[in-house]
Write a structure and sequence with these properties.
By secondary structure, the protein is α+β, with helices and mostly antiparallel strands. It folds into two domains: about 1-175, Leucine-rich Repeat Variant, CATH 1.25.10; about 185-435, no CATH class. About 30% of the residues lie in helices and about 25% in strands. It has 13 helices and 13 strands. It has helices spanning about 20-25, 35-55, 65, 70-75, 85-95, 100-110, 115-125, 130-145, 145-155, 160-175, 225-230, 350, 355-360; strands at about 80, 185-190, 200-210, 220-225, 235-240, 245-255, 265-275, 280-295, 305-330, 330-345, 365-370, 380-390, 400. It has an eight-stranded antiparallel beta barrel with strand order 3-5-6-7-8-9-10-12. Strands 2-13 form a two-stranded parallel sheet. It is globular, with a radius of gyration of 21 Å.
Amino acid sequence: MAIDLCRKSPAALADGAAPAWTDAVPDDAVLLEDLGTEQREALNFAYRTTLSHVDPRFVAGDPAAWASDFGYALDRVAIRLDNRSNEQLRRAALEHPDPAMREQALFEYADRDHEDAIELLTQAIRQDSDRQVRWDSLWAIEKLGGPQAILALQQFLTDPDPEIAEWAKLFISELQTGDPAFDDRPGKYTPGRTFDETIFLLIHCDLYVRLDDSNQHWGKISLAPQGLARIYGQAHACPNVATRERQLVIAKTISGLHPDGSPHVDNYLFRGFTDRTRRDRGNFFFESLVPRPFFKSGQADDPSKGVRQADIGFARYGTWHLEPKFEVHEEPAIRYVRGRFQGWGHVNLQRIAGRSLEEILVPGNGVLSTLHDPEVGPMTNAFILGTFKGKLNDWDGDGVIDLNSRDVYSTAEGEIDSDQDGIPDQPGLTCCDWTTHQHS
């Protein structure tokens, strides 16, 4: 998660290296002493943790508690698999015809920590026609952080698109206080659907690939949300009020994988614990373990190198924030969720060698994996680590937030449900049967 470390080293935080907070945002600066006790503790924890990953002399106490993050360790040594020049990235970020590729260039450029990264992201938000490129770029600005980020985000508080304006408001609040803030639009719940909420997720990850068996050579791709969704599927978090503290479904669909144009459905049932010592939120740690066909080719639905049935695990942890104004079954709805995730994958290095990024970021070109299967384990060569955010949006433009209007093809237990009637197409089947969707 290198983009989250940008501009946060001790050198960058030294006296004089950055403007004072109140000087940079004089109109509505939130002073540290104005924050609540829990907010200050959380921000100080994040500050110490980030510093410890850069220089162990900043560790407070036992390094085992502060400097043991595998992803950060890999980020120091991994080479970039995107070898485009900075100028090529800037041009692609503003001019590429594919919005996913524009966004990918923006995140890669930000990940390289250039001084003008926020300026480029701001330019893209102003001019891009794709609203997801715009709100994902707002997120990239938040990741870079600091007073300059707040100044950039403030420009979009009155954006004509209410979702852009709310994301800007939310990110500013998180940077200033650690907590999100929202606008005052009403919400709408649709009875009779399988899930009480269907929350569209933005997911950013760093994909670290082991390049040889020596464990001394690593590669890295920083996958922006649309690029990740194109390869692995667009994800929705799907909770039900009655069970959300112990389980939920992450429903994913990949577009463009099946020759007949139908979505490739890939559902994950997660279970875990949730801390509810605060009435307005839940802190959670969930895990998933699901049976999946593992394609040794590294391409979903491509059995040319053989297929192995394996149990794939994934972990996600974070916080959801409740909205008292939006009630479902006499309980507040989840308005916003954020957190981290990690898992394993298989990348066919021969398949991507010498190819352009446009040829790499294609549907299904990368499969999730496990270390615990005797055949699949030795082929596992990628560590996947990232962050996610999701909030309720107004999807039909009527000025009302939609709680559960998104189409997700899953039962409450994660089984495929093509007609969304709550009954599984085939009991126990949680991923599309690849044998019925062979490429011609």
